[in-house]
Amino acid sequence: MGHEDQGVEGWKRHFCRGGEAGRSGVGRIEAGLRSGALLVVALVLPLACGGGAEDGAEPDASAAPVAEERTAAPAEPAPADVAAPPADATTTESGLSYRMLTSGTGAQHPGPYDRVAVHYTGWTTNGRMFDSSRGRNREATFALNQVVAGWTEGLQLMVVGDKTRFWIPEKLAYQGRPGRPAGMLVFDVELLKVTEAPADTPKPKPVSAPDDVARPPEDALRTDSGLAHKLLAEGTGDVHPRATDRVEVHYSGWTTKGRNFDSSVARGKPATFPLNRVIAGWTEGLQLMVVGEKRRFWVPEHLAYKGKAGRPSGMLVFDVELLGIEAE
User: Fold this and answer.
1) 90-124 pLDDT, tens per residue?
2) In a shared domain, residues 62 and 153
């Protein structure tokens, strides 16, 4: 993000799509630029510019929470357990860890498309504070399908008044995107308000499991490591990614009982990540592919989550479409 020398028009073109909400948001941007203040654009701009799912805009899971530019707020000391989730933290199947700090008085959990108001502070695991709504003295408001996956999942565990600490692994945060905080991120989040999504908000459905989800079929190929795979659709590329490359993919994942535990297809947004920062079965398997190819993988547990608490267990099945390769 730039400073004042980018000009108000540049901010308008980059962030806003029109409408009264957009003009309102641009007004705030103009005021901030004229005052010479730095701007926090991560959480508030998708809302100020009318970018919610309810007005037809495509949700941007990379939009928040992050701030490349911040007001000059005093840094909040990092918690003592910022480096790693403590023993009393709970870990979900996706790898998100959390610990309740303060219990709320509400009874309603937000849904994945509801709008929430929160206060939050975020740190890297070395204790650097990179964003804080409290430092700006202004709550953040956004739809839960517009933020990083760790927030979408984590805030659904909360009720109004709860204050929770989250340890969000990189695959549920910014997935190594340039210019974003890297690695596991830690957030203290207080849920202030929940507004239900309109009844007609489009909601993705779970992706149906393939017929051979229970075990690899006889025509599946197997590598020396035990990874099984089968070509579903030919690609058009001729380059295979390396373990150090970043890839863009669409994927769906199931347990061998057919439970769909994750899907970028259902979310309508591809995933991007470095190949050396995912489970071993993915690091190995995607190097067999070329762009445009779609392949099914049966990933044995020793190449997946290795029985880690809160993660999908046993052999996992993934349909993966390789959309792009970015050499590192």
Assistant:
1) 998 888 999 999 999 888 899 888 999 999 999 99
2) yes
